[in-house]
Write a structure and sequence with these properties.
Elements lengths: L16 H4 L25 H4 L6 H12 L8 H7 L4 H13 L3 E7 L5 E7 L10 H5 L27 H12 L1 H4 L7 H15 L5 H9 L10 H11 L20 E3 L6 E3 L8 H8 L9
């Protein structure tokens, strides 16, 4: 009973973290004091927040852009007004984000016909179904039999006498229709196909302004799916009749001034240089009567 327990420690040991907790090591790094967000928060991937190649400004701009609502402006001028960095540094940071797939720029045609550049923010680069290798490969051109047949335009009137100058005027008129209505933007092929119809109108004594008004007045509302087909229909359905026949007007007779005849001293009307009246000219033209010589 008085035997000493050899397994008992001789004295109380101090609490050393490295000894008592071998898998935990002391450090002096960041300590998080987090609260759960329930509103107005954005989920940002660590691949962006801890990106090993992006600069701090690029990471900050990427986080800021992903937190913005759709449609918010993210051009260089707007971002330079929002942050203290200058436009040059912001432009360089945007190029970094674009190079690593967090931003991409696409060109789209708006309903008015104008082409604009839109900025697309990607919170996970490469998440699209097409891989980069697949995207680089050109799309396979369909065989001639597989291609959808292009819809033909309705027939347009043909001019009676077509000249290069008349067709050039008609083509210029069609190219200028987009100034009257942006929806009437035509391709060069459509303009060439419609030019004979416009030439037929111009051939019927209509001015280019009158033809332009007839093609652009009372257009349907909303976007036009096939503006060339609409113009072709109007050129054929609203073709005016040919102008009425006008007989050529003969010029008025020339009225010569009065002159005195050198033969009979009478007044007569004659052109410049005439010195005898008509009677004297006819009398001088008759042969002399034969003389009776016995």
């Amino acid at each position: 009973m008085d035997t000493e327990n050899p397994s008992a420690p001789p004295r109380a040991q101090s609490r050393i973290p490295g000894k008592n907790h071998p898998h935990r090591r002391a450090h002096s790094g960041v300590v998080h004091d987090n609260a759960r967000h329930t509103a107005r928060f954005t989920v940002i991937g660590n691949h962006l927040a801890q990106h090993p190649e992006l600069s701090g400004l690029a990471i900050g701009l990427g986080v800021h852009i992903q937190s913005l609502p759709a449609g918010a402006p993210v051009d260089i001028k707007t971002l330079a007004a929002r942050f203290p960095e200058g436009a040059t540094r912001i432009a360089a940071a945007l190029r970094e984000l674009e190079a690593h797939g967090y931003l991409r720029r696409v060109r789209e045609r708006v309903p008015g016909g104008r082409i604009v550049t839109r900025t697309v923010s990607c919170n996970q680069p490469g998440h699209r179904a097409t891989t980069p290798d697949t995207a680089r490969k050109p799309a396979r051109r369909p065989a001639p039999d597989d291609r959808p047949a292009a819809k033909k335009l309705p027939p347009v009137p043909e001019p009676t006498h077509s000249t290069p100058a008349l067709l050039r005027t008609a083509t210029d008129l069609l190219a200028g229709l987009r100034r009257e209505d942006p929806r009437l933007l035509l391709s060069a092929t459509d303009a060439d196909r419609l030019a004979p119809g416009v030439a037929a109108w111009l051939e019927r004594d209509l001015t280019p302004t009158a033809v332009r008004d007839a093609l652009t007045t009372d257009l349907p509302r909303g976007p036009l799916r096939r503006p060339a087909a609409l113009l072709a229909h109007r050129l054929a359905a609203q073709l005016p009749p040919p102008p009425p026949f006008r007989a050529p007007v003969s010029p008025p007779p020339v009225r010569h001034p009065l002159r005195n005849c050198d033969g009979c001293d009478r007044s007569f009307r004659g052109p410049e240089g005439a010195i005898r009246c008509g009677d004297c000219r006819r009398a001088s033209a008759r042969p002399p009567a034969p003389s009776d010589s016995r």
